[in-house]
What does this fold into?
Amino acid sequence: MTQPIVEPAPNDPKKQEINPLLKLALELGPLMVFFFANMRGDWIVRTFPILEPVGDPIFLATFLFMIATAISLSVSWALLRTLPMMPLVSGVVVLVFGALTLYLQDEIFIKMKPTIVNGLFAAVLLGGLFFGKSLLGYVFEAAFKLDAEGWRKLTLRWGLFFIFLAILNEVVWRMFSTDFWVAFKVWGTMPITIAFTLAQMPLIMRHSLEEPEKKQPAE
It folds into this structure.
């Protein structure tokens, strides 16, 4: 049977797990590259003059963001021979909107990327609920084992949270400077997301399923 390109569905016995710290590095690494390149763009160009034609720091950051995203997905593929669902969706949007940003030399496209990604995730999660599917397991099933009601409630909350993030991104990039927007992606969005995640722990605890105890082999 041909190996699927995208990661198997939650609870699929064929699904391989990756070290949580490595997974975090692969998902956050490209974002940190984007932040650093925008902040130290002039220094990067002086150190690597070949990058000067790329343009201003925001365009250099976009270029390196695209490369880092491609590397992250390539490492995931090399390790697991599958691609994680949500980073894949985000990566496709990064590459498409990044290419438009560089080609047209218009930073609006990369600024709209979080709006598109978060809106898409919200549509997928809430749309799945509409059809009776709790799709959040693609993200959290390795960490939590919840009953059906728990997954439904958690999926609904995350769907609404993604809508909030999409609206928040639109407000920030339209009302503040590019440097503020880039910094907010790292130092604003991430803490908000972590705080929201921690706020879901009471729900997770209420609906957690106990792992069955493994039987001891007979002596």
In short: Residues 125 and 131 are 10 Å apart (CA to CA). The chain has a mean pLDDT of 81.
